Amino acid sequence: MNFPRFLAARLRRRTEQRLFSATVTRIGIASIAIGLAVMILAFAVLFGFKGTIQEKLFSLSAHLKVTRYTLNQSYEETAMPRKSRISEQYKSLSAVRHLQMVAHKAGILKTPDDLQGVLFKGVGSDYDWNVFQQNLVEGALPAFQKDTSDSKQVMISRTIAKQLQLKPGDGVIIYFLQNPPRPRKLTVTGIYETGLEELDKQLILGDIRLVQKLNRWGPDTVGGYEVFVKDFTQLPTAEAQIAKLLEPEQDLRSVVDEYRPLFDWLSLLDRNLSVFLTLILFVASFNMVSVLLVLIMERIPMIGLLKALGSPSWQIRKVFLWQGISMILKGLLIGNGLGIGLCLIQQRYRLFPLDPENYYMSYVPIEMNWGVVLALNLAVLGLVTLVLLLPTFIITRMRPVEAIRFSK
């Protein structure tokens, strides 16, 4: 029989019968439960927030972009061939998932009452609409013709649609900025929204053949390649693999470098979360130490009696450690139920809204990472158990005679 565990179980039942001890014990359990629940929620919201922003960004801007090297700082790219070492060998790269051809051209959308400067992004049949589909809020995706004629269908953002009072099916004139300006009549097939103001206020999607025609390019000429990786954590690997295939006139840019302020802001969220979690663990540990000290002080006569009967200090300390571990396990059980339950409810019903203008999304996003949940449980159990060793040192300094007299 494990004597410390047996005695800890008996003391736990006795403690539940004492009003003060039971209240203190519940406070300790509650501190663990609330702390764990808050940490689970914090990580789920952080992962959901970062994942949602990255998905929205990558739906319009690839992980890596390959263009022709130029000192020109305009939105439009310098012509480059469709076929190159990268476009022909990217499927052999372990970190790369997809490559697509694009071309950009600046223009002005004009209606009878208003106008708006835009950046026309020309895409072809290789464009991954599955990634973009999540942004569609009204209408349908463009259906580009398979013949050699360019399509006049275009996707615009909700921001542009509100400003120009456009809806799916409406026609709109675009004046491409070149000398002389070239007007084209386009048909709005759908409206998208990412919540990322920098993209929504200017980017529209249309047929790459229209850009090729305006620039007097042939079908084998494009503005650049957009490269997507299999996993965002493999971005440095994919960048290194693509860099080995670059030709002398080609330039490679990463989405992290292109949108540095956004990724710096997401990194700042990680640092803030670390400070927040440290404070929660500190409070939970402090509460558990206080609770265990109270339980030890209530059992000073029993400690003196056990020492007088020959029990070593470490054996008595283990009795109270088992009591503390029992409270931690109860707190973890309640905390997991509370934290995971709230996450699943928010994930399904989206009860907590956000202002899209400030947070890029209309509700609090949740992304569960079960590996992190397990790690949090182990971290709380290990750290708080380790901290509980501190108050039990008092037992080693108690003398049997003085401890027995304490009750008189």
Automatic annotation (TrEMBL):
Domain of life: Bacteria
Pfam families from the UniProt entry: FtsX, MacB_PCD
Mode of membrane association: Multi-pass membrane protein
Keywords from the UniProt entry: Cell membrane, Membrane, Transmembrane, Transmembrane helix
Record GO cellular component, one term: plasma membrane protein complex
Domain called ABC3 transporter permease C-terminal: residue spans: 275-399
An annotated GO BP: lipoprotein localization to outer membrane
Compartments (UniProt record): Cell membrane
Domain MacB-like periplasmic core as annotated: residue spans: 29-244
InterPro entries from the UniProt entry: ABC3_permease_C (IPR003838), Lipoprotein-release_system (IPR051447), MacB_PCD (IPR025857)
Ranges that cross the membrane: 20-49, 273-297, 327-349, 369-395
Protein family per UniProt: Belongs to the ABC-4 integral membrane protein family. LolC/E subfamily.
Listed name of the protein: ABC transporter permease
Species whose genome carries this gene: Siphonobacter curvatus
